[in-house]
Amino acid sequence: MTPLDPRGLVNRALLVGVSEYDLTEPPHGVPGDLPAVKHNLNRMREALVRGRVFGEREIEVARSPSLDDFGRALRAVAGEAEGVLLLYFAGHGAIPSAGDELFLQMRNASVVAGGHAVFPGAEMFTTVLTVLATSPARRIVVILDCCFAGNAARVWEHFDDKRRVMLLMSVQANHRTDAGDPREPTPFTAVLAALLDEDRDTTLSDLADRSRERMTALGLRTLRDDPWEPQLRTERGMDVLLRPGGGQDPPAPPPRPSVPTPPPGPAPPPGPTPPQGPFRAFPAVLLALARGLRAALTDRFRTPGPPRPSRRAVTRIVLAAGLLGLGLYGLPRWTGGDEAACAPPLELRVLTDPDLEPTVRAAADAYLTSGENTTGDGCRRTGVTVYSAGSSDVVDALRAQTGAWQEPRNEDVNPQRDIGPQPDVWIPASRADADRVEAGRDTDAVAALEPAEEPLAYSPVVLAVPDALSSEALDDRVGRPLSEMVDRLTARDGNAAVRRPDPEFTDTGLLATVGLYGADARAVARGERMVAQPGPPSPTAAELLCTLPDDDAVDHRTAALVPEFLLRSGVGCDATTRSTRYAQYPEDVPGVEPVYVRVRWRGADRDERERDASADGFRDWLAGERGRAVFARDGFRSAYDRELLDAPRDGEHMLHAPTPLVESAGRDAMERALRAYRDAGGPGRVLFLLDSSGSMIGQWQGPSGGPGLLRQSLGGLGERDEYGVWAVAGTGDRPYGTLLRLGPHGRADAARALDAGARVRDAEADPHAALLAALDEMGERGDDRRPQLIVHITDGEDNGRLTGERLDDVLDRARATGVPVTVVSLQSGGCDPGRPDRRIADVSGGRCLDLGDDLGAALHDEVARTGTGEG
Amino acid sequence: MVRRLAALLALLLVLAACTGGGDGGAPAAPTARDVPGTIVVASGRDVTGKNGVRRRLIDAWNQREQRAGTQFRARLVELPGSADEQRSQLLGALQSRSAEYDVVNLDVTWVPEFAAAGLVRVLPEELVDEDVIRSVAGTARWGGKVYAVPFNSDVGLLYYRRDHLARAGVERPDLSGGLTWERLRDLVETLDGRPARGAYRKGWTTQLAAYEGRTVNAVEAFASAVRDFALVDEEGRYTGTVEELAAGIAELRRRTETPYTLQDAFHSDEAASLSDFAEGRTAFLRHWPYVYPALYRTFTREQLGVAPLPGRAVLGGQNLAVTSASQRSGKAAELIRFLTGRESERCLLDAGFAATRESAYGDGVRCATAVAGPSASPTGEGADPVPRDAGGRPAYARTILLPALRDAVHRPRTPLYGAFTQTFTAGLGPLFGDAPPTDEALAEQLDEALRKALPD
């Protein structure tokens, strides 16, 4: 008989996929969700539309329906179809005991085990057939992709009105199968859809035959390790065309790496074997069973020769045999055969504040090997990489550069390079950071933040006073504003000084600045005078405590604004020689309160559920007992009662309960303080000296070349700032040429001028003459008291002209003018002690950056500290 | 400090990439499903100071496509310099699709992980042909299929101070013919007997801080002590034994004994150890080929020499792969064919990378001028300090570098490399602590930890 060609008739397809279940916990839950099934629906719908038998409006999709919803949808389509009626089901299938009725489990399914298990929330296949048979359709096609699908055959055989009904089942009776990679359709549906994509006449019988062939060729096996063979049941001669060939296809879908095409063949090879899904819902009862049986049986099954079941395959086989009688079944897994024992875990990208990085990294390391992050097979569920970046850069990027972070379009703005990976999780040192991002966010932002309600821990920002200057009196240590504490300190010793870490690089510095500037940031000038220091501030609090002991005299008379926890966890430097410090607790400086923020990127939905599960798992661990233990060890306090989590030990001079501690940092207070800090000196002035001598030819191109670094740093300058660029090449009277005159510029104009004029000259350079000229130029302009900076970008090739008296000239002039010179040395070790570039930077109060630094980001920060920035 | 550390880590796996002139000929037609547009190439920031060779090669490919009238263009997206951050972004982005990449530049140790996770595609076999150095070609495959084509290689080398040896009266201060660890120790004793003036403190330095550098140094010691050392089978399953580990630990202990080793080495990464050697604190340095040009900026040819590392040396490098999500995978593979072709590899070698093809070290292939980059100016300012052979290659390329690459050993190849190296690095920590355990005790602990990290 010719197969029915249903084109032109009223056809209906109902695609049912249950990927999510309400109840997945023992004792009554189903074995877990089936994320792969979500992809089945999309893929089947796409394939049917391309097949042109069903119009787009003739296909109805039911995603994880309840039993009631399923019943309603089934009745509706059954009543409408006149040509072909197709029902597709993917989800959990269950049988009370081998060889009996088949139940299709809907969203609200549960399991009541027993001698003859019952399945509330599931539809009996007999009922499904009965409803379908009410349809006037000429052909009724049922496709089942679930465990035990083949058990439907027996139901069909005993069904009276089966002549019109054609049944395609994913697997033979009493067999369970693996749902495969959660990020792809299930193996059977992937094969079906691929076959339907082929431009040829395809009937249901063809589909059955060819899917069987293809699955055999792919070596797919059931969980009992039998060949996986789809089954077909029809009355003799009954068939229906599901995909006519020879037509014009709609646009092809994007290539699918995992569409199973059996090798070998002329077609391009398929993608890699779908990996094992890293996340599975292993009910505890199954795990216990698996562990018990595995120990006893593993060795017997470990015989060589293909296909050699891995230990986990053995576990699954054991589970299959053991559970069938219970009426339970199927775990979503792929039985690939020859893969390594554990699949690579899902990777979480965790961005944090630089001062928090050691603690968060210690927590992540502990989490990686924890029981919570380990599956029953000993595999890691999640990998975690912790990294940090400058706190204000991160806030700016999340606020205004998420588009470029997701898709960097040019070399000048690339947060992927300059900040780091797109975070899945962000742990700033204050909840206010997340609020700052939200408050000023682009309307087209592609990253959304979900901050946790409560912080993970707390640590006050303290004035850590060296032993020699400290006061034992409680009255001096608590209950006063920061400015008053500093005043009292200087009253005790006229030489006392205070330092704070860079407010743009770490929240500790910014929180301290909130206190320094006072209410509404009114006392900016006074605040900055309190922490004035030669040279740039230390980037982090830990580095500040490490820098001070470089000079014992400085160490003994300088108090540091740092988070209290550093007095406990300490810093890895000069442990024996650095000053002992006593914590004083200013009443107007907000504390550090690390908070967990989930970051979601638009379009990043390929593994959304699994990523959520991973992120939630890490969050719960951090907030739980073991996470708290890490914070305790590092000297943090409880986020709730602000008590120290661990008592102070000998030699740690913090107060047990230094009341009153202030409330959390406010969004506006931090933003105001940062703005005031950036504007503190008013607009700045930066003169770039770009070594353009012949030797720079090897350091010229790309974002790491001289001009590229210069361009990236322009983001730290705003339109009120003045800057200029000199090309340093040539000797004698004219040691430089002007690429960009010293004055205010738009960034785009400046970049264009650089593009047009920056080139390597066929000449040597005279850094001595150029630096003297630059210092003179800036010295003359310095009367307006703008913050100034000279940036010298060089490969040091001509430092032969910077020795002896010539070097002394430059050092003397730098001291005299007081303009900091930051040197970017494009050679390894260019900033080692004693090198000319290092000495110039040190004497002038600038920084020396060499290939050991992250040059692009570091130079940007230096320039931004002088300028007011683009924001 | 944080930023500096990140940058130093970056230096570790520095091998970035570049490009070169391919094998000539017109571009092959893209496959029918390729969507015309931009091929995004993600690669770590080039911190080796190779003057954007990578970008120049991509530019050369773009020009070729433009001439051919196609709509395909390649664009380089730089990732952070830190290898850990590169890996994290590539994994996270490809798993979740938080960013779109077509071609990714993978460290050789990541290839099994990305392949096993289905994040990169199987590539045509012929991309890794007989010309690719055999040991290097071994990094391309997983499960018997090619997933990532070697772009630039790397291998441990021994740099040394010829002038120190001469001053101490060593008769033949040229060690380019190779030496054993025993000979190295003898030389250090000779040097200590007649110490150089100035900064000199100890015989040698290397990278033993708790990061990938420690894994590399340890694998070199283990592979020298244990025949066919691998730790994992070809499927990445742990196969180590306590006996093997104990033998390896004993060798690592011998190599790092304090009379010979600079104390700073135990906290050093690539940048710190390079700095110590450049400052003259040691006479020997274990490092990678990329510092060859940098060291010749610091030292004269009379001062500096380079030799194969005694014992076995670890293979490094980076390979290019096409992502599973790419909508232009055919053309992306074509780009890789160009970037890893004979001319490109020659360009990479001339620029200071370790080329992955035998032909780059021979006389038949030249780097196209368009890619070779600018040359030194006529004034002689910036004259190339690197000694070169008659063919224009770094002088040591054929005699030292190529043999070292051929003989190099792999780090364990497993999809769980991240867990392996973290466990291995941490597990060896006590060896360098105040009270080091015995070889056997440490081996037992390490074995147990590795079994847990690489469950069977």
Automatic annotation (TrEMBL), chain B:
Superkingdom of the organism of origin: Bacteria
Signal sequence annotation: 1-28
Keyword Membrane in annotation: no
Entry keywords, A to Z: Signal, Transport
Keyword Transcription regulation: no
InterPro entries: Bact_solute-bd_prot1, SBP
Family listed: Belongs to the bacterial solute-binding protein 1 family.
Xref: PANTHER family: ABC TRANSPORTER PERIPLASMIC-BINDING PROTEIN YCJN-RELATED, ARABINOSE-BINDING PROTEIN-RELATED
Identification of the protein by name: ABC transporter substrate-binding protein
Native source species: Streptomyces caelestis
